[in-house]
Every structure is written in C-alpha cells, then in structure tokens.
Design goal:
Blueprint lengths: L1 H53 L6 H39 L3 H60 L4 H22 L4 H15 L1
Helix pairs in contact: 1-2, 2-3, 3-4, 4-5
Length: about 210
C-alpha cells in the first residue's frame, strides 16, 4: 500500500497530467490551423489589392506609401503566422515523444520533430528576409519620391533664375541652386551630416 501511494499514484497522476497537456496541445493546434486558414486567406486577398495600389505609378506618393506600408505589414504578418504554426506543431511533437513508449514510433516522431524544427527555423529566416525586403522597398519608394521632388525643384529654380536680370544677383542665385542641388543629391545617397557640412562650407567660401 505504501509503494502504491508513494510511487504508483504519483506516476499515474503525472501521466494523466501529461496526457491532458497532449490533448490540449492537439486541440490548440487544430484551432490555430483553422484560424490561420481563414486569416491567411483574408490577408492574401488584402495583400493583392494593396500591392496594385503601391505599384501604380499614376497615383500620388502618399497613397502609394500608405499602400506599401500595408503590403509590408501584411507580408510580415503572413510570415509570422507560418512561424507560429510551425512552432506549435514542433511543441506538439515534443509532447507526443514524451508520451510514446514504443521505440520505433518514437524514432518516427523524432524524425518528424527534426523536420518540423528545420521548418520553423526556415520560417523564422523567411520572416527576417520579408522584413529586410520591406525596408528595402520602402527606401526605394522614398528615393523615387525625393528624386521626383528634386527634379521639380530644379525646374522651378531655373524659371526663377531666368527672371533675374541683375548679373551679380543671378550669380548668387545660381550658386544657391547649385548648393541645394548637391545637398539634395548627397541626402539621396545617404551622406553623413559631416559630409554635407563640408559641401556647405565649400559654398560659403565661394561666396566670400
């Protein structure tokens, strides 16, 4: 009776707890899979619509920027969903292995676990790639907009310059336009503040 109370009962209770965890994990994974099927379908549909807006060069910058931010958000969410499901499947296999007494079945489960672990790692890497690509595309759109504004400003500046008749005033204005154009180009190329300051000093010296 003492052995039963001290050894068998605790062992049975522990086995029962683990079995309950396994059932809960199976149910939780099933619920997660069902939820993600619907969620991912909705996200994919929304993604296609936002992509069309972001890629439409006839639209204004702010509209495209907003759409691109949504594209990035959705792509990251889809990648996170894949990683979340892979982690849940991995955790379930670990529980199943802890409950499986048959050697051959354990071996089979451990092989599945190794595959699922690799899948999770790949999904996490894919998530990082998606985030990096999102940042890259955002920078490209910003660069495109800066280039567009620079071109417009150059045209407007030239029109203002053509109206100036005084030779000395015109020379000063040409110098100012040249300086602003160079600084805009440097900012476009992500120049440091020190590098920009050197250009500003050079033009200041020219004016002396």
């Amino acid at each position: 009776a003492k052995v039963y109370r001290e050894e068998i009962v605790p062992a049975v209770e522990e086995a029962t707890k683990t079995a309950i965890k396994l059932v809960d994990a199976q149910r939780g994974l099933r619920d997660l899979q069902q939820e993600l099927i619907v969620t991912n379908a909705e996200l994919t549909k929304e993604l296609e619509g936002q992509k069309r807006i972001a890629e439409d060069t006839t639209l204004d910058y702010q509209t495209r920027k907003t759409a691109l931010e949504e594209v990035n958000r959705i792509q990251i969410q889809l990648a996170e969903n894949v990683a979340t499901q892979a982690k849940a499947e991995e955790d379930l296999l670990k529980l199943q292995i802890s409950q499986e007494a048959n050697y051959e079945k354990r071996e089979e489960l451990e092989t599945q676990l190794a595959e699922k672990t690799a899948e999770r790692i790949n999904s996490e890497l894919a998530l990082q790639t998606v985030k990096q690509e999102a940042d890259k595309v955002s920078r490209e759109l910003e660069t495109e907009e800066v280039a567009r504004k620079t071109e417009i400003n150059a045209i407007l500046a030239q029109l203002d310059l053509d109206r100036i008749e005084d030779v000395f005033e015109k020379a000063r204005e040409e110098l100012r336009i040249e300086e602003e154009s160079l600084i805009e180009q440097l900012r476009l190329k992500k120049a440091s503040e020190d590098e920009i300051a050197k250009v500003e000093k050079a033009f200041t010296d020219k004016r002396k």
